Batch of 2 targets.
Target 1
Amino acid sequence: MTSTGHDHRPQAAGGDARTAELAGRLEVVRSRIEAAAAAAGRSDVPQLIVVTKFHPAADVRRLAALGVGDFGENRDQEAASKTAELADLEVRWHFIGQLQSNKAKSVAKYAASVQSIDRPQLVDALSKAVAREQDSTGRSDLDCFVQVSLEDDAGAHRGGAAPADVELLAARIESAIGLRLAGLMAVAPLGADPEAAFNKLAAISEALRVAHPAAAGISAGMSQDLEAAVKFGATHLRIGSDILGSRPAVG
Ligand SMILES: *Cc1c(COP(=O)(O)O)cnc(C)c1O
């Protein structure tokens, strides 16, 4: 986002009904984030990433006009076509979904961060892809978040590496060309208390920062649990449905 110094009030951009709807929802979410930060006694406000998966490029354009500068997508095919269509926007794209190593080359073309790094082979594939992209376009280093699983039961799965494997992945990212170790990402386990989950994540982050002090990012918190995430130190929030409305069911 280029900062123009203009204020980004909802009424300032766009004229259609969808823009007004998005502006209203965005305002509510921003207020929730500010209230949660104040309640937690934080002087910083976490970074909002608006997750636009399943929603059209036109909505990204509306949100960008409303002052949103960071967007999240979880499938390469959808993200690649949206980012190509929106190449004129000065916004950052964050990849937050499960990623196959053979998609690293595509993701390296548009992503500012990959938040779902869960295995060594993916680190190697991203490093190679970003290094090639840097040679041809001079792109900046890719911010990398290790996705950590907060499940107690290793069987239940919302993705991510086991906490015991975080240090190994972090060290591999830190020594890889083209990659910058940014921190951790997690999704609260379904049906569990999000505060307990994000408290656990905060402890894993603290342990990580002993050896990697710059890896201070904590990407946690979605529409349903952003308050809990802010309370336990989230630096990045990934909010989809509370801003864009419900997504079409996945067939
Ligand atoms: C879809 C998604 C989100 C956004 O979830 P909402 O509940 O729609 O806010 C956040 N993080 C990840 C990893 C996602 O896949």
Target 2
Amino acid sequence: MNEHLKNDSANIGYLLNIIKEQGTDYLNSIEERVTSVINNNVSEKQELPESGLGTEEVLQIFNKKFEPIMVGSGGPRYWGFVTGGATPASVAGDWLATVYDQNTQSVTGQGDISASIEIETIQLLLKLLQLPESFLGGFVSGATMSNFTCLAVGRQWLGKEQGRDIAKEGISGAAKILTATPHSSSIKSLSLLGLGSSNIIKIKTEEGNREAIHIQDLEENILKLDGEPFILISSGGTVNTVDFDDFKAISRLKEKYNFWWHIDAAFGGFAACSETHHHLVEGWEYADSITVDCHKWLNVPYESAVFLIKEQYKILQVETFQNSNAPYLGDPLENFSYLNFLPENSRRLKALPAWFSLMAYGKEGYQEIVDNNIAWAKQFGQLIENSLDFKLLAPVRLNTVCFTLKDDAKQDAVGRFLEKLNNTGKVFMTPTFYNQHKGVRAAFVNWMTSEKDIRQVFDLMNEIITEIK
Ligand SMILES: *Cc1c(COP(=O)(O)O)cnc(C)c1O
């Protein structure tokens, strides 16, 4: 055995301890961590060592080379994209997922039963999101893979409606996809699935600064299809303005017309946890498939998302994802195994961090995280609304604030403003373009964010805007 491997193995307690110490220091000081890469000079590339260096020395190299440029993206003021943090319980679960290193596939004991943890976690999540148990779910690496998985089963459904088995025969002939404001990852999934992103029929959005699908235009387009089955991709929280399609109206259409209804509720689905905002997702339980990201508002470490697909489509799902030429893996419909229900075969026990966090903080814990983030977004939005230099590009509907400079003649300054703001290292936001305006997005999805962060960042914004005037 390699000397270093032997030595590491003999000293595993010591090694895990120094990692624990370092992790504790990091988490305890995450509020002070810079939120931007100020100096991106990753020094020269390492050579592959001949006989290795051992973990402790490698840690020293990491600490010298990479650790100083790690940004506090899990901290309270990283408001770019839609970036969640990691709760203590989820970190605990994540560490254990690594230590136990299961290959999560089966619940019936083909060498491993860790999938029962996954099934239990899905049940907890359905409860949290107040969704019925008629959904069968699983963990994938992110909402992109969840959209992919849901749309893959939608594709199989579409084929069946046209009398074909697309998983076997491949795609031929045009598929019709209707949508208004899809996330880029759904477009990517359509490309990957061979459905062709240019087969999208773009539906209008509702009038009055909205990104939600125009229900009447949707129905008119459905009528034009003359009974042809199609896939509808709807939004449960668009990224710019967190607008929601009207799920109740869509569920009424679903009674009249034949389509696969997919909802991308990557982060917006957590509106279900909030008494004041639950109405945004009303009716979503009638969807055929739903995407929910866990590394966003559930605040578990990357990579974690779930797909939820109605159990009635189990056969379609197996047709899509089965390992059909591997008889040793068993009959997919008899012995439930994730192996035949999603894209990956071997997979990490992704459910464990979510299981830990759901159990540790429960319904109330998450309700509070969600309600607080909504409150910070509204408060931040109010400060912007009342300011002389900034204005909102859309009302704050949930947890994201989309804004720009008040003076439309200063559109060129938006980029400079954001660059300067991010360069302070105190907060991170991302650029966007909305309603013919360059804008900035701040998304609130971290359990640590507090009122003082809102104040601090708004003060900083005012300092910067004075500098660039
Ligand atoms: C973030 C996001 C995605 C993509 O999720 P990943 O986890 O990055 O793969 C898809 N849809 C929506 C609405 C999102 O916010």
